[in-house]
Amino acid sequence: MALFERRRQRVFLNEAGGKLARAVTEGLGVMRQAVRELRDSALRIRPQVLSCEPTLLMRWLIPRWSDFQASHSGLEPHLLAGGGSFSFDNGIDLAIRRDDFSWPDDYHAEILFAEKVGLVCRPDRVGDWFVEDDGGLSLQSQAPLLQTRTRPAAFEEWAAATGRRLPAGPVRAFEHFYFSLQAAVAGLGVAVGPWHLVRDDIDAGLLVAPLGFIEDGSHYCLLAPKPMRVDSLEARLVEWLRVAGSA
Fold this sequence. Notes:
One of its GO terms (biological process) is DNA-templated transcription. By secondary structure, this protein is of the alpha/beta class.
């Protein structure tokens, strides 16, 4: 059976082709709705999965997670480490991501808190790697910079946000962001430390930020496949994350 016809050197669907195209479109819509219903049904019998960027998960969320569990016993999501792009079709129900990449337009995003960054090092190395000048402290030219392959532009972004010149000091590269922060704790150099990832180490006296912190223009967001109901677990999680992030 012919589904197309040619008119003036162009190809068009004929009546039969149009009928089939409408049927296929309607069928795909029915399939999408069935998948959503099956997914929602599965969510009712298993814990939701919350994917979170690994360093934020290890250094900020997990140390505070018992507070959320205490007020939402039996309802808390299962935590999963993951960063960057993802799909809600792969078993993830919610995700915490920094908005430094593009996600699909149909993802629903709730801003949690702004990213604030600063240069951090061990307290006993401040005198070695920072120097007094007319404007206060500044980074010495020979201070070792702890770079990371997962955020290679971290120092440049800090310099742009602060308006400071970035010295061309020796660079020590690490595979993951978490390793660069641990290297700073070990006294190996100066790292770019986001506030939420280093605040516990600063409170414990393991790290200091001699030049303070500044917002770099990015944010952490909670992503969901659809808008959240006001009384839902997702909405309560957003509220708790915002309060914890501002503390």
